[in-house]
Amino acid sequence: MITASLIALPFIAAILLLLLPGNLSKWAALTATIIQAAFTAYVIVIFNINEHNSLLSNAQFIIDQPWISSIGIRFFAAIDGISMLMLILTNFLLPLIVLSTWDRPINNSKLLYFLVLLMQGALVGVFVSLDGFLYYIFWELALIPIYFIVLLWGGENRVKITFKFFIYTLLGSLFMLAAIIWLYLQTGDLHSFGVDAFYNLNLDMVQQRWIFWAFFLAYAIKIPLLPFHSWQPDTYNTAPNAGTMLLSAIMLKMGIYSVMRWLLPIAPAAVMAYADLVIILCIIGIIYASWIAIGQKEIKRLFAWSSIAHVALITAGIFTLSRTGFQGALIQMLSHGVCAVGMFFVAEIILRRRGTYAFDKLGGIREKAPIFASVFLVITFGSAALPLTSGFIGEFLLLNSLYEYNFWYATFAGLTIILGAVYMLRAFKFSMLGAAEEGSVFQDLSFTEKLVFFPIVGLIIFLGVFPQFIFNLTDESVKYLITEINQHLATEL
Amino acid sequence: MTTLIFLSLLGFLVLFIGAFEYKKLILPTVIIGLIVAFFLNAMDWELTATSFYGMIDYNHYAVSFTGLMIVSVLLLMLVASYHFRNEGSHIADIYALMIFTLIGGLLMTSFSNLVMLFIGIEILSIALYILAGSRRLNIASNEASLKYFLMGAFASGFLLFGITLIFGVTNSFNLAEISDYVADHEQLPALFSTGVMLILIGFAFKIGAVPFHFWTPDVYQGAPTLITAFMATVVKTAGIAAFYRLFDSCFSGIDGTWFKILWIICVATILLGNITAVMQNESKRMLAWSSVSHAGYLLIPILALNELSSSAIFYYSAAYSIASITAFAVLIGLSKFQNDLPLDQYKGLAKNNPIMTTALVVSMFSLAGIPPLAGFFGKYFVFLTAMQSGLIYMVVIAIIGSLIGVYYYFKPIIFAFNNEVSPLEKIETNFAFNFVLIAGILLSLFLGIFPDFLQHLPG
Fold first, then answer.
1. What does pTM read for this prediction?
2. Distance from CA of B392 to the nearest CA of A (A)
3. 3-state DSSP: chain B helix, strand, coil percent, rounded to 5?
4. How many CB pairs lie under 8 A apart between chains A and B?
5. Pairwise CA distance, residues B259 & B312, whole Å
6. Which of B84, B270, B322, B386 is the Cys-Cys partner for B391 at CB 3.0 to 4.6 Å?
């Protein structure tokens, strides 16, 4: 029931919101997301990290109801450690994202909040579904609201850009659908889409290779990895900042999460075979994206490229198939989500006050708005992985896993520490430091803006100092994932 | 079998009401009549015996498809009350002809004798020739009617010739006997295969599959929009249902003779339909080409021919019909009696017309196959059926086709939300019209969330 309610709450809230008068909709959206966050907090408290059972080792709050019984599709969902982390990410960031739209007048805000809540429901659905088909439905469903958010409230050239984004991501997912159907047909007499049934398939190498590419294409486009990233910078840039936050903080994590849930244990041998290829792609992605980020002349584009670099490192860590890699990836996903919301809100505030993202028109903001500048500095540190911030622990673990995997990979991926610091500090320097223009004004943070930023700053520092909380939550699931993969590899060799 | 008799009487009744000019009575009569027909049809669910001396076998398959067609016609009639609101005199004729078409469709889904199949097709077609030309002062409508008549006549010729050849070989029109003949003979005479081929071509003409599709764009564009919707939904459903019924019951054992040809037709239909639709700038033409591509998807289960096929065809037809009717209804609301409607006339629709916009978005998403709408499950069942028979390449091609589809289905939506032009004013609609839009939205959602509801019906 708990899992089902977590999925249902945002959808119900979205429908209720449509019935309310338009001027109440932002309050309604905020209330709904806060209730959802509180509910998530309650679920964390009652989540038993030591539980052992047959489903994914510690999956809890299982709901398993027939949905389309004639073809074995079930409403099958549960929460394990990894799902729990993704729920924290989604449900705790959503109130902040809603709050970030507070001070700005929005056309037809009712529709915007409706779409945001729809998006939240779909994201939660993706993260808890254990039936392949259900998962696919939510995966696609998450695409529709964000498409409209960017199309309706986006900036320049949005029609073309959103279209490319939509087609690109749909391309990947349709092949994933074909793979899911194929897997379903392999599951013996009692066909099932259940994740457990998929894990128990012993596919041979040729089959695994096909499955790998069908899934990987979908995820590589979503994450996005080089060379499938070309939709991302434009989409991020043109999206309204709330949309960019949703995309970067949460939606791209769908891809990374799915690699861990749906790709690794189903086609482990193929993953092993292609691990080097993927990691090298990721490392090229890190260096390339960081390099381009350094050369950007607009703050939001810079953040967009930095996002590519960060997720590439996370993906590389996962493909080392090691415990440190998984743990690092998980905590880094959370950290990146928090920082991304912060970064794009910084961009939003700059846009609100100055009407531009271009560095050459910015500068000197620190003098006028010291609180804003300090907050941005913390976010910069978090993103550039300074010790005692959330970014550090994740990045350290990821690089460590790469080091254990191959020394040279770690060396090149390690450039991210330097390059990441360079572009983030450049962003800070060009926008905040320097002399302000004569007579320019820059109002410091308003109350609601502080309300968004302070939790973010708090989280960045909290996660940096006490990461153990997250490790406890996910450890059992990570161990299970490793044993599952090793078992498969052992039976095949 | 009461449905057939009831519908015939209803058709005549409507004609008489029209002749005596009781205009206010026409629409209620038609609506109530169709609702009654729907329930009569549903009551035949348990019927096991064949009717009319074995000419008709009204099994679950036939009942399901007839039910679907009645619902589609019902929705279209409601739209018709809006579409033809200023049409005056011959509205009763149009309603009556639509009911006669439905009778043809009913025979096409329930025949167990090739003669019945042919009679069904002719009843359906002849009524349609008139309907396509029902705007008789309009040149395009006349052209559509004539083209459709010529092409339909050719198709009927092919079909009839094929039936004759098969009769020549098997000495029977009865499906069961033909099927027995196929089972008994290892080596079938060339005449038989030729007959199958000719029937295949006849059907391909009727449903507008490539390369027998030339007539579709012109006819669809020229005919009154409502009749276009009618052809794209009810007529196509009937054609596919008949196609599958014949091939499943008679020719499944000899798929070697027709499989490759149908495979090529199928691929060509999906790809050409979708690619050409991308290039259209006129809404009706776009929907016409999109309907060509959907014919391709509907052919896949016939190609796969396994135990999932009939339900896949049924569900896909239902999802496609509902979405198409909704899309055409929006088009009718927008077009104000013009026959040509460039795509950019959708511009600025969203601001003042929330119901029409929602209907547009839902129907286009459903046609494009985006979850969780009905159209997605239609595609899913088709893919599942194809994979079950190992048609992996076909699935890949179908996936590419639906990706291309997304491109043009999104165009009207993007135009509708365009806020750079001055928004369209609120469009005057009536209750029946809004009812169809809302019913279309809810049905597309409902069938998407509970696909079980329909999927197992034809059995």
1. 0.87
2. 9
3. 80, 0, 20
4. 63
5. 19
6. B386
- Indicate whether A55 pLDDT > 80: no
Q: DSSP letters along B199-218, please?
A: HHHHHHHHHT-TTS-THHHH
ipTM above 0.85, yes or no: no
Q: What residues does A64 pair with on adjacent strands? A: A76
State both tokens at B445: 């959602």
Specify the amino acid at residue A41. Answer: A
Q: Does A294 touch chain B (CB under 8 A)?
A: no
One-letter amino acid for residue B19 of the chain:
A
Amino acid (one-letter) located at A122: A
- Give counts: helices (H), strands (E), chain A: 22, 2
Residues from chain A that touch B383, judged by Cβ atoms under 8 A, are: 177-178, 181
Burial class (CB in 10 A: 0-12, 13-18, 19+), B213: buried
The Cα of A187 is separated from the nearest Cα of chain B by a number of Å equal to 13
Q: What is the pLDDT of residues B6-42, one digit of tens each?
A: 999 999 999 888 888 777 888 889 999 999 999 998 8
**Contact yes or no for A170 and B384 at CB 8 A:** no
- Cα gap A193→A134, rounded to integer Å: 9
Please tell me which of the candidates A137, A166, A181 has its beta carbon nearest to residue B387: A181
User: With contact defined as beta carbons under 8 Å apart, do B286 and B157 qualify?
Assistant: no
B-chain residues near A181 (CB < 8 A): 380, 383-384, 387, 395
Token pair of A168 as six digits: 């690109």
Mean pLDDT of A395-406: 88
Q: Is the dihedral of CA A42, A44, A49, A53 positive or negative?
A: positive
Q: What is the 3-state secondary structure (H, E, C) of A348-365?
A: HHHHHHHCCCEHHHCCCH
Please list every residue in chain A whose beta carbon sits closer than 8 Å to the beta carbon of residue B407.
Answer: 163, 167
A18 and chain B in contact, CB less than 8 A: no
Say which residue the tokens 């939003």 belong to: A348
Residues in chain B: 459
Flag whether residue A272 sits within 8 Å of chain B, measured between CB atoms: no
**Hey, where are the domains in chain A?**
2-492
Average pLDDT over residues B307-316: 90
Question: What gap in Å lies between CA B287 and CA B269, rounded to an integer?
Answer: 14
Question: Phi, psi at residue A74, to the nearest 5°?
Answer: -120, 155
Nearest-angstrom CA–CA distance, B380 and A238: 33
Of A137, A170, A175, Cβ closest to residue B372:
A137
B414: nearest CA in chain A? A159
Asked whether B181 and B170 are in contact (CB, 8 A), the reply is yes
Token pair in block for residue B337: 């009696």
> Nearest-CA neighbor of B140 among B81, B227, B71, B65?
B227
- Enumerate residues 6+ apart whose C-beta is below 8 A from B195: B161, B162, B163, B164, B165, B166, B168, B169
For residue A144, what is the nearest residue in chain B, using CA coordinates?
Answer: B370
Task: Please write the tens of the pLDDT for every residue from A297-342.
Answer: 888 888 999 999 999 999 999 998 888 899 999 999 999 999 999 9
Distance CA A454, CA A459 (A): 8
> Cα-atom radius of gyration of chain A, to the nearest Å?
22
Q: For chain A, what's the residue count?
A: 493
How many C-beta atoms lie closer than 10 Å to residue B309's C-beta? 25
Condensed to tens digits (0 to 9), the pLDDT of residues B189-201 reads 888 889 999 999 9
Query: What is the bridge-based pairing of β-strands A73-79 and A60-68?
Result: antiparallel
Residue type, B361: V
Rounded CA separation B287/B332 (Å):
13
Q: Which residues contact A132 (CB under 8 A, 6 or more apart)?
A: A180, A183, A184, A193, A194, A195, A198, A262
Q: Do A152 and B456 touch (CB under 8 A)?
A: no
Q: Do A166 and B388 touch (CB under 8 A)?
A: no
- Kindly determine whether residue A70 and residue B406, on different chains, have CB atoms separated by under 8 Å: no
Contacts of A144 in chain B (CB under 8 A): 365, 370
